[in-house]
Each structure stands twice: as C-alpha cells, then as structure tokens.
Amino acid sequence: RGMLFGLRFQPGHPGVKRIGWLMVPSLLGLSVTQINITVSTILASYFAGGPTYLFYGMRLIQFPLGIFGVALATAILPTLSAQAARGALDELRTTIGFGLRMIFFIILPAMLGLILLRHPIVHLVFEHGSFTKADTLATATALLCYAVGLWAFAGVRIIVSAFYSLQDTRTPAVTAGIAVGANILLSLWLMTLLDAAGLALATALASMLNGSILVAVLHRRLGRVDWGSIVWSAFRVLGACIPVAVMCLWVANASLWDQDGAWVVKSAALFGGIGVSVIGYLGVHIMLGSEELDVVLGMVKRKLGRVAKKFGAA
User: Fold this and answer.
1) 257-310, pLDDT tens digit by residue?
2) Element containing residue 8 per DSSP (H, E)
3) Count of domains in the chain?
4) Which letter does DSSP use for residue 257 in this model?
5) pLDDT recorded at residue 225
6) Whole-number Å distance between alpha carbons of 47 and 51
7) Distance between CA atoms of 129 and 126, rounded to whole angstroms?
8) 3-state secondary structure 7-47
9) Distance between CA atoms of residues 200 and 203, nearest Å
10) Which of the 8 DSSP states describes residue 12?
11) Three state DSSP letters for 267-299
C-alpha cells in the first residue's frame, strides 16, 4: 500500500525556530559584498559616470568569482557539514585548507589576468557606441581596484562555509557588519583620492578585513589549519603565474588597443593571449607536480566519463 503525507503548519516547532535563527544571520553574512556594492553605487553617484564604471567593473569580477569561487564554496559545504556533525575536526581543517588551495589555484591567475588585461578587456567588451575612451580608462581603473580583492571575495566564501558547517551563522554576520562599517569609512576617504575607483578599492579592502577577522576567529575555534600547505600552494601558483604575466603584458602593451576598429584582430589577440597564458600556467603546474592540478584533472575526467556514459546509455 502507498502512504499519504499531509502538511502541518507549525511555525513554533523547535526545528523551524532553529532554522530561522541560523538563516537570518547567514543572509547578512553572505550579502556583505552586495551591501558594500550598493553603498559604493550610492556614493559613486557624486561622480559623472561613477555608477556605470563600478557596475561594469564588478560584472567582470563576477565572472570568475561566480563560476569558480561561489561554486567551490557551495560544493564543499556538504562535506564540511558532515565532518562537523561527526566531530571530525582534523578532516574539517583539511577540507578548509583544500578549499583555500583550490581557490588560490583558480582565482590568483584570473586576478592577475584581469589586472594586466583590464584595458584590452574593457575596450573590447564595452567601448562601442557612446562608450568613449575616457569611459574605458575609468572602468579599467575600477576593475583594477576590484580585482586586487578578488582572492578575498572568493576566500571569504570558503571560510564562511566553514562557520556554517559548525552551525555558527552569528560570527559571519558580526564580521560582515564590521566590514560594512569599514567599507563606508574607507569609501568616504578613498573617494576623495581616487574618485569612483576609490569606492571599488574600499570594497576590496573591506573584504580583506572581513576575511582576516574570520580566519582569526576560525583559528581560535578549530586550532591550527594547515597554513604551511596553503602558503606553499600559493607560492607554486605565483611561480606558475610568471608566464601568465609575461603573456598578458605583451598583449596589453600592443599598439592595436589605441586604434579604432579591427575588432577581429583585437579579439584574436586577447583570446589568443589568454589561451597561451592558460597553457603556460598549466605547464608550470605539470612540471611542479601540482596536487591541485591533479584534482582538477580528476574532476574533469569524472565529468567527461559521466557524460560519455550517459550518451552511451542513450
């Protein structure tokens, strides 16, 4: 026989109350970046074109952040939660370290590429119609200021996921409030020095502050995370970024970006340079025997295997 399930509306149930107490602070903790962006947009209205420059700059930042940073934080949350529920703190610390290493492996070269190729990217994507060379320069400057904090935007996602796995949503909410306050103060100061770009830099610095406080609190909660492997992984990534920097500088300094038209040639130069940079970056990691690269390749192979199996079954 089948079973029929009924619905009972019990907002006073202890489980519902628990979810509510966990959910409300978590919304604030996760929304800190968006709150800071909103504050920056309001203040940017004091500058001609300021909101537009910040909007376009953040859209370019959201591409690697949304695809890799948010996705990785979402993917490891169930693992962190299961380990926290079992009380397996050693495994939890290992998973946090793994998440940060993977973030740096993916985000640092993307950050470097955005910084060095900021002018070609903005020129190719946005400089059409009423979007002038002056607009390109201002947007590229905003992109630069946002990009220096890309590692913090992504890293905070991992650290916040660790707190959520411990059913602690209050700490990220408190640090988020501190970050918002710092962002407002920094914005009021830096906007007098760098105009609209100062607001982007304030957002990046506030995220770094948020991440630093979260790491300090997490260290007190869990003890020592394997920072040695994280730092060593970061040094490997920085070494692998050398060919990325060389190629990006060569593309960015080409004279064609000062010319009008030639969009096909410019597109080929930009995407070709990015492709060569990726090959060089992965090549160095292969020579160094990077564990992070092995993990990525393993994930790709498993994904391709599932796709092939699915189509084979069809």
Assistant:
1) 988 888 999 999 999 999 999 999 999 999 998 888 888 888 777 777 776 777
2) none
3) 1
4) G
5) 81
6) 8
7) 9
8) CCCCCCCHHHHHHHHHHHHHHHHHCHHHHHHHHHHHHHCCC
9) 5
10) T
11) HHHHHHHHHHHHHHHHHHHHHHCCHHHHHHHHH
Q: Is the dihedral of CA 28, 219, 235, 97 positive or negative?
A: negative
* CA atoms of 293 and 255, how far apart (whole Å): 35
How far is residue 136's CA from residue 297's CA, in Å, rounded to a whole number? 37
Residue 93 lies in a domain: yes
CB 143 within 8 A of CB 196: no
Residue entry with tokens 């026989």: 1
Domain span holding position 68: 16-225
Write down the pLDDT at residue 314.
Answer: 56
Look-up: residue for tokens 């020095």? Answer: 193
**Residue 293 domain-assigned?**
no
Is-contact 172 210, C-beta < 8 A? no
CA 219 vs. chain centroid, Å, equals: 22
Q: Measured between alpha carbons, how far is residue 129 from residues 59, 122, 132, 135, 261 in Å? A: 19, 14, 8, 11, 12
Query: For 123-169, how does the pLDDT look when each residue is reduced to its tens digit (9 = 90+)?
Result: 999 998 899 999 999 999 999 999 999 999 999 989 988 988 888 88
Structure tokens of 30? 């996760």
Report CA dihedral (115, 118, 119, 123) to the nearest 10 degrees. Answer: 180
| 288 falls within a domain | no
| Within-domain flag for 69 | yes
Q: What are the strands, taking DSSP E only, across the chain?
A: none
pLDDT tens column, 31-88: 776 788 888 889 999 999 999 999 999 999 999 998 888 888 888 888 988 998 898 9
